[in-house]
Prior knowledge:
Helices cover 29% and strands 24% of the residues. With 255 residues, the protein is of the alpha/beta class. The strands form two sheets. An eleven-stranded mixed sheet has the order 1-14-13-12-8-7-6-5-2-3-4. A three-stranded antiparallel sheet has the order 9-10-11, with no helix packed on it. It is globular, with a radius of gyration of 16 Å.
Amino acid sequence: MTKFRGCIDIHAGKVKQIVGGTLSDSNDTTKTNFVSSQPPQYYGKLYENSRVEGTHVIKLGPGCDEAAIEALSAWPHMLQVGGGINDTNARQWIEDYKASKVIVTSYLFPDAKLSMERLLKLEQLVGRDKLVVDLSCRRVGDEWVVAMNRWQTLTDTKITKETLDTLAGHCSEFLIHAADVEGLCRGIDEELVKALGQWVTIPTTYAGGARNIGDLALVEKLSNGKIDLTFGSALDIFGGSGVTFAECIDWNNSH
């Protein structure tokens, strides 16, 4: 059954909601929907109190480690962390900073090409059960291409059944942001969600464009309950007006 999964997006040390396709090193081009006055730990505790398992803490660029560590400390060994994860720090995030799992993206794509060697190295370092592969993507024609470097660089990897089957043997979950609709609150990428529902064999969370509580039912229908959903900018705890945190928790408790 489809569940609501939480997120804590951190940019420049603060919890924010950003329009995904605009994220860059320049603050002039990065479009921000919301900057929280609450510290990261507040959100970690909020998710703990409502038992929103599978919540991910994403570091969007430099200067975010301290804030991410603060978020993780609120619910030790239960929150996932991503952003800049590689072979030199993955174990530290789990062992020292108490992340439940590490989420990896750009490290797997040196020169924008998928490296199975790097994936196997990470799997050996932390274990398949503590590894989440982020396949966040941008739409190119009628296909989806995995994007890295804060969704700015397209890789050589397309999201297909074959790709997902290959990677699923070496990780425990997928996290997939549809970067083109991320932060816009204009609706999910229905075709992508439907395709993922047909292709995935391990737990998978979709993020991007969700705007109201009805999107949980829509994702459940399109994916036959195989895909979980994250709300970002539409959620009231992030300044949104499309859906309330209480509605999402009610959904989880009734499913």
